[in-house]
Amino acid sequence: MKTTRNTRACTRREYIAIFFFLAVAVSVIVVHNMEVLEIQHKVNSTAVVVPRVSTDPDVHRDFCTFQALSPNDALEERLLLDSIAWPGTSLLPAPLSLEKTSDPAHSTFTILPRRGGGQWHVGDQLEVRIKISDFQGHPKKSGGDFLLARLHNWKLSAGVVGQVMDHLNGSYSAVFPLPWEGDAQVEVTLVHSSEAVTVLNRLTSEQPDRIYFQSLFRSALLSETTICNVCLRPTKQPLCNYTDLRTGEPWFCYKPKNLSCDARINHAMGKYEQNLGANEEKLFQSGVNLKVYLQASGPANVTVLPKKKGQSEVKSSSVKPGPSGYYYQGVWQALGGTTVRQFNNFAISQCLKGKGVYMYGDSTIRQWFEYLNAALPDLKEFDLHSLKQAGPFMALDYANNILVTFRCHGPPIRFSNVITSELRYIANEIDGLTGGTNTVVVFGIWSHFSTFPMEVYIRRLQSIRRAVVRLLDRAPGTLVIIRTANPKALTLYETITNSDWYSLQRDKVLRAVFKGLNVHLIDAWEMVLAHQLPHDLHPQPPIIKTMMDLLLSYICSKNGG
């Protein structure tokens, strides 16, 4: 009995010890979880606090990871994604048969008779019906082709963009305003077949890292280069996490084997990996099914008579809001109530007198800096010993108190070499501005986001918009001007990495995100598409001058200077 009592006593002591250990363990876990919750609360309410190195293999199990959005931003993201959903982007049959894809040589457009009959007058609308057929001449039964349309008269140096509507049955409508008197020639271009768009959509979903980047890490005599990106495939190699603490913009590099994450000294474009399926490359053939004109079944032009008495110059499109402007005699005529003035060098100096112009973005914004730098004889570029492509750049005109700067946007940026200390996000730069009536903020951000999921671009724009709102709240007189995307010449490489379809989708999102704010748009999309010069990522000088005349007209309207 005594032994049994001793055994029971020992058992009770063991249970007590076990319970005590478990209580301590639970307490530690609870405290830890409370700390985690507190950190998460701080992250959600202020800045994103992240470890410099991640070794958890589950952190990037989804390949592309995104931080949680506020309920409003999440709803907006969902609505934006829904608004740009493209018809017909379902899985393609395997193997792919080119003969059953859209063929511009077998497709046509037809000018429809004027509603109500009679002749065409300035202020009328011209409607065109487009029918798409495959390489065997069979009419397509579904939509999803990417078409561009414009109306032009090159003798008058006139052009305007048409609004295309997909009827989802292989037919499309293009609607044009008739803003000038005389001949008007219709032009319809098949940029991509619906099948090609399906491939482009799939590439972004499956291969968002097909363009990747590199960073050099260096300390003393040791140096190592690793791959970096928004989306990095999970490996056993730990990650360096360079997510921006203020904006939450994600960026990662594989950690060097023998150096710390703090040893990163630059950012550069890496390489491009092309992973198309069998026969998919045939969907992107120049002169065959990549940016090819359609033929007209009947007349391709109309004669436009002077406007009738009491008729408006240009009617709004019945398909969607009409064009933002048109060319006539080589001059851009804005349709939003803005009078576009022509600025010579002296007029530019007078317009910008006493102003600071802060430009942010990619090389298409750098073009604008270079334009002003060349146009103003007293504007002298200050040597910041910057790299030619990336900048930053600063030019000063002391006599007229003019400051013009350019800084490239933060990653992803496909420049050859950017020092890490110069990698800045537009939102953070805008937050650093005082603003005011003599401050002009100009930015454009689109081209370098083409291969990434749309969520990456939406979140970048939301971040910039918050900074713009803060700027306009503290300095309502600040002028904010945004450059849109523009169409470009397309090769196979350009198509897979920077197609006009990618640009169009981002252009729609940009306009929606900044709609309703006190900002101005430079509609580069229409200015390039409506012009007779070839499409180019970096538009030719006459188009750049048109853009700058509009920008300067915003800065120095008759009421503003």
Name a few traits of the molecule.
2 domains; 561 residues; Rossmann fold; 27 strands; 29% helix; seven-stranded antiparallel sheet; Immunoglobulin-like; 11 helices; alpha+beta; disordered N terminus; seven-stranded mixed sheet
Secondary structure category: alpha+beta
Instruction: Report the span from N to C terminus.
Output: 106 Å
**Helical run tally:** 11
Number of domains: 2
Please tell me how large the radius of gyration is: 29 Å
**Main sheet makeup:** 7 strands, antiparallel
User: In total, how many beta strands?
Assistant: 27
* SS strand fraction: 25-35%
Structural commentary:
By secondary structure, this protein is of the alpha+beta class. The protein has two domains: 90-210 and 275-335, Immunoglobulin-like, CATH 2.60.40.10; 338-555, 3-Layer(aba) Sandwich (Rossmann fold). The chain contains eleven helices and 27 strands. It has helices at 2-45, 71-83, 194-206, 345-352, 363-375, 426-431, 454-474, 492-498, 500-513, 524-529, 541-555; strands spanning 53-54, 102-111, 120-121, 125-134, 146-153, 158-161, 163-166, 171-177, 182-192, 211-219, 222-229, 239-241, 252-254, 266-272, 292-293, 295-296, 301-305, 325-328, 331-334, 356-361, 380-382, 393-397, 402-408, 418-419, 439-444, 479-483, 520-522. It has a seven-stranded antiparallel sheet, with no helix packed on it. A seven-stranded mixed sheet has the order 21-22-23-20-25-26-27, covered by helices on one side. A hairpin with a 2-residue loop joins strand 18 (325-328) and strand 19 (331-334). Helix 2 packs across helix 7 (454-474) and helix 7 (454-474) runs parallel beside helix 9. The radius of gyration is 29 Å and the shape is globular. It starts with a helix and ends in a 6-residue tail after the last helix. The relative contact order is 0.12. Mean pLDDT is 87; it is low at 1-12, 14-61 and 315-320.
